[in-house]
Design goal:
Helix content: over 70%
Number of strands: 2
Largest sheet: 2 strands, antiparallel
Number of helices: 21
Shape: globular
Radius of gyration: 22 Å
């Protein structure tokens, strides 16, 4: 029986729907990442046929990434690290009473990104993998630097503040044991800092705690959101709005797929990079971070597209493209599935099963997520002085559940206090988070590249690295030119 024939069985379709439901719920819970969602669901697959198991886990994988957008939009708590950029525009839309529209855009963009990446995975697994294998440490360093560099120039009004924010994030990423020499750095003698600062507790503190503190100081900011909750009118709308953003969705989905293919990148990097690109290409860049629907579409299309991209190296070479994909590799090895070049020859049913399950899961995910989002939205009926307390408890619970570590709670509180003053004085939280996410990898790949090639000059002997550097330079030059031209126009108008 082929993989397609297995997937089309009613009981298997129901298993995929179950995977979607579990994935969305787990993804919406702060602290339960896509990786943890797969870990929690592995036990369900022990008695399953291998083809059914890979279909179930693929559904959980896709849906958990999408589920993180629900709490990101409604409560400004990223359920998964990859949904952090979604909070920047999703929550302001919820505050304006447009939670339904924001969620619909997020879910449709996620479904679109997942479907496109699944198609790419099925058609181009082998040729794309050949490109990915050409990425050495030099190219991976260039990709990380490109992501940080682009965002550093997004805030054209305060480029210096944004750049400093990114540098602080990079510094935070260096805390802990050096990945090459294992020498402790900036630990101040603390054993708990040897493993560095986990990004998820830090993100929850920077977004959730900061938002709670801000709303305690300015409770009127949530009047529209509270009104929507009181009336109970949570209307799922935004299909027409999504069609307006189709090119952003396509561009971000393609970017997310490509980033997902690169081993070690993953959905979080894809999401931030797509958001950065949209911040530069959007017709109203000044509205990004203030409730621009294009920001939601860019982030969600990219992070879910990265799931399909991550399956390319997993299926074709046995190389997981992300931590979640690594857990899938572990789970499938339990069932005797041998990932790698011989998979397409000896067990082609696994490729077709993965493809069809991701197609069906992304379609089912849209409808399942809407139902779950409506349930979560009922919480909006609660007055904010109570809702804020509930959000705080949820943030604490999610943070602790991440590793069952009290130290993560300390990280949350410190990040929240730091983030409040950080935001108050006009610094860029998203740039800091991106610097933290990419900074460690950027340093690691740069130093490993030096060990491999001997000097930075030899990096430029690699065409892909040179191409990325040229692209980076063009973007920076264009941004500097645009900033100077904008200031001249404003000065001329003032005169």
């Amino acid at each position: 029986m082929t993989g397609l024939q297995v997937i089309l069985q009613v009981e298997v379709l129901l298993v995929i729907v179950l995977g979607v439901v579990l994935g969305v719920i787990f993804g919406a819970l702060p602290g339960v990442s896509a990786t943890m969602s797969i870990v929690l669901c592995i036990s369900f697959t022990y008695s399953m046929d291998p083809v059914v198991a890979i279909s179930f886990l693929a559904a959980v994988y896709c849906a958990s990434i999408t589920g993180g957008s629900i709490t990101a939009i409604l409560f400004k708590i990223p359920g998964t690290p990859s949904s952090a950029p979604t909070t920047l525009d999703g929550f302001p839309m919820a505050q304006r009473g447009e939670a339904g529209k924001a969620l619909t855009l997020a879910l449709l963009a996620s479904g679109f990104g997942g479907l496109l990446s699944a198609l790419v995975m099925f058609l181009l697994t082998q040729p794309l993998m050949q490109v990915a294998l050409k990425f050495s440490s030099a190219e991976q360093f260039a990709v990380c630097a490109l992501g940080i560099g682009i965002l550093a120039f997004v805030d054209s009004d305060r480029p210096l503040n944004t750049f400093v924010s990114a540098l602080i994030g990079i510094w935070i990423a260096t805390i802990g044991q050096d990945r090459l020499s294992y020498v402790p750095r900036f630990t101040f003698g603390s054993v708990k800092l040897l493993d560095g600062i986990e990004s998820l507790p830090f993100m929850i503190g920077m977004f959730a705690v900061v938002e709670i503190l801000s709303n305690i100081r300015n409770p009127g900011d949530n009047e529209a959101m509270a009104k929507e909750g009181v009336t109970g009118k949570f209307k799922v709308s935004g299909l027409g709005e999504f069609m307006k953003t189709k090119w952003t969705a396509l561009r971000s989905a393609v970017l997310g797929t490509v980033v997902g293919i690169v081993p070690g990148a993953g959905a979080t990097i894809a999401s931030f990079m797509a958001y950065s690109v949209e911040s530069k290409m959007n017709k109203s860049p000044e509205t990004m971070g203030h409730g621009n629907p294009y920001g939601i579409v860019a982030s969600e299309a990219a992070n879910n597209a990265a799931t399909g991209g991550a399956m390319v190296p997993l299926l074709s070479m046995g190389i997981p493209g992300s931590n979640a994909a690594a857990m899938m590799l572990t789970a499938l090895s339990i069932h005797g599935v041998q990932m790698g070049p011989l998979l397409l020859r000896t067990q082609p049913e696994y490729l077709s099963a993965t493809f069809m399950s991701m197609i069906f899961a992304n379609i089912a995910m849209i409808f399942v997520s809407i139902v779950i989002a409506k349930i979560f939205a009922k919480v909006l009926k609660v007055p904010y002085y109570i809702l804020g307390s509930l959000i705080f408890v949820l943030a604490l619970t999610g943070c602790y559940a991440f590793q069952s570590n009290m130290f993560d709670l300390n990280v949350l509180f410190i990040a929240g206090a730091f983030g409040y003053f950080f935001k108050k004085y006009g610094f860029n939280i998203s740039a800091l988070i991106l610097g933290m996410v990419l900074g460690g990898d950027m340093e690691y790949y740069f130093r490993r590249g030096l060990l491999m090639y001997g000097s930075v000059g030899r990096f430029f002997e690699r065409p892909i690295f040179t191409g990325i550097v040229v692209l980076f330079a063009v973007i920076i030059i264009y941004q500097v030119y645009s900033t100077i031209r904008k200031k001249r126009k404003s000065n001329g108008a003032a005169a």
